[in-house]
TrEMBL record:
It comes from the Eukaryota. Pfam families: F-box (PF00646), FBD (PF08387), LRR_At5g56370 (PF24758). Transmembrane segments: none annotated. Residues 15-63 form the F-box domain. InterPro entries: F-box-like_dom_sf, F-box_AtFBL13-like, F-box_dom, FBD, FBL13/AtMIF1-like, LRR_FXL15/At3g58940/PEG3-like. This is F-box domain-containing protein.
């Protein structure tokens, strides 16, 4: 009996339950793999041989290492040919089923024939592709030009292009279903190409633009009625730069820029989440920050990061809807905190994140004459990241603990390595008077998380 029972257990262990799944479910599982891996499943059994041909996504990644020496490129040519033949073979053998995603990552030393690129993208368009992701690592060769047929793909919902690629838009563009557009460190033939691309995408919801030095752009004029998320990363130092934004439906704004003086924002009062990383050091820095904040009266979540000091002696508009505020600043650059607390009566979560723990260490906290209203009735969570146990930092913590009447969590993330000093001050902080009987003082080992806005 025991032998018979063991035999039944062994038979159960040998059952291939995955292969018994329906084709639709297997294809869905394989859609998360690179195409090279999905093709390799044909070796598992005869059951798997036709499955890869019906997978609704194609992900070609040329990651083979190549020699950088241009004098002897015979091996590189062989690798280029192998990758090209693999892609062409897959497209030839694949069943004529709709294609949800087409992803192409090209090695910087892969010199692709433009005809092949056009053929592959045309195949995707012919199979009603919904997402196209093109990535080419930056090289010294000529950038790849997107085929004209791409700009009239009615099924396309997401287009992400990254790297050594140039956008040369035809005079007529029709992308009626494009919802997400990512233009990451690419080139444009001229500014008109960029504007045509936006105008030809009437239902666009998300726009992500990362600039780089040789993109052939100076001014970005973005006027779009349906845009809900805009992420702009500009690390190009050019005094001629201008960004004009008119987006009445915009909800999420993320700006990372060294030239915030070049911004002109219209009709963006519906923004509820703003992340502004301004690293510039020019003389009008304060004015630029205030100009940006003044167009965000309805913001609910605000993150500010800057290097230059913003003193307390200026006026801020009221942020009646602000619920979450995060300051990411260097030492002694957070004097603006008091102004923000006084302008945000309904603030619930406050995070002060010091970007460094080095000096100088002048006082950054000035106790106000009147307790901000958010402390009296709204503030529930306060996090201090890279807390250094300096006197003015302790004074801020003590003030908030004492005056925040509904505080639930005071989270302290340590920014120093002297554990003896830390231990003594922890005990001292436990004795600080508290305005809220339910407040919990927590000492964090990891920083509070941050949600990327374009993943929403």
């Amino acid at each position: 009996m025991a032998t018979e029972s063991n035999s039944e257990v062994e038979k159960c262990d040998e059952v291939d339950r995955i292969s018994d799944l329906p084709d639709s479910l297997l294809c869905h599982i394989l859609s998360f793999l690179q195409t090279k891996q999905t093709v390799a499943t044909t070796t598992l059994s005869t059951r798997w041989k036709p499955v890869w041909t019906m997978v609704p996504s194609l992900d070609f990644q040329d990651t083979a290492e190549r020699q950088q020496n241009q004098g002897d490129n015979h091996g590189n040519n062989d690798l280029n040919m192998m990758f090209t033949q693999f892609v062409c073979r897959v497209l030839a053998l694949r069943e004529p089923v709709p294609l949800k995603k087409f992803r192409l990552l090209l090695n910087p030393y892969y010199f692709i024939d433009p005809t092949h690129l056009h053929t592959w993208i045309s195949y995707a368009i012919g199979h009603h592709v919904e997402e196209i992701h093109l990535f080419r690592v930056r090289t010294r060769s000529q950038p790849l030009e997107l085929p004209p047929s791409l700009f009239s793909c009615k099924s396309l919902k997401t287009l992400m292009v990254h790297g050594e690629i140039i956008v040369n838009c035809p005079s007529s563009i029709h992308l009626p279903n494009l919802l997400c557009l990512g233009l990451l460190r690419i080139k444009y033939t001229n500014e008109e190409s960029f504007h045509r691309l936006l105008n030809g995408s009437p239902n666009l919801l998300k726009l992500i633009v990362w600039r780089y030095q040789q993109d052939n752009m100076i001014s970005f004029n973005i006027s779009h009625p349906t845009l809900r998320l805009f992420f702009f990363d500009n690390q190009v130092q050019d005094p001629r730069f201008r960004l004009e934004l008119n987006a009445p439906s915009l909800k999420h704004l993320l700006l990372w820029d060294r030239n915030c003086h070049g911004y002109l924002l219209h009709n963006v009062t519906n923004i509820i989440q703003a992340n502004m990383f301004n690293l510039c050091e020019h003389g009008n820095f304060c004015h630029c920050i205030l100009k940006l904040l003044s167009v965000l009266p309805n913001v609910q979540s605000l993150t500010l990061r800057y290097n230059k000091s913003l003193g307390p002696g200026f006026y801020l508009p009221m942020f009646n809807n602000l619920r979450s505020l995060q300051l990411k600043v260097k030492c002694c650059k957070w004097l603006i905190l008091l102004n923000l607390l006084q302008s945000a009566h309904n603030l619930e979560t406050l995070t002060l994140n010091k970007m460094d723990v080095e000096g100088p260490h002048e006082s950054c906290w000035i106790e106000p004459l009147q307790v901000p209203k958010c402390l009296e009735s709204r503030l529930q969570n306060f996090y201090f990241v890279r807390f250094s146990f300096l006197d003015h930092e302790l004074e801020l913590v003590k003030y908030i603990l004492k005056n925040a009447q509904v505080l639930k969590t005071m989270g302290i993330h340590n920014g120093v390595s002297n554990w003896e000093e830390e231990f003594l001050i922890r005990w001292e902080m436990l004795d600080f008077p508290r305005g809220s009987l339910t407040c919990q003082l927590e000492f964090l080992t990891v920083e509070p998380g941050w949600i990327c806005p374009w993943d929403r």
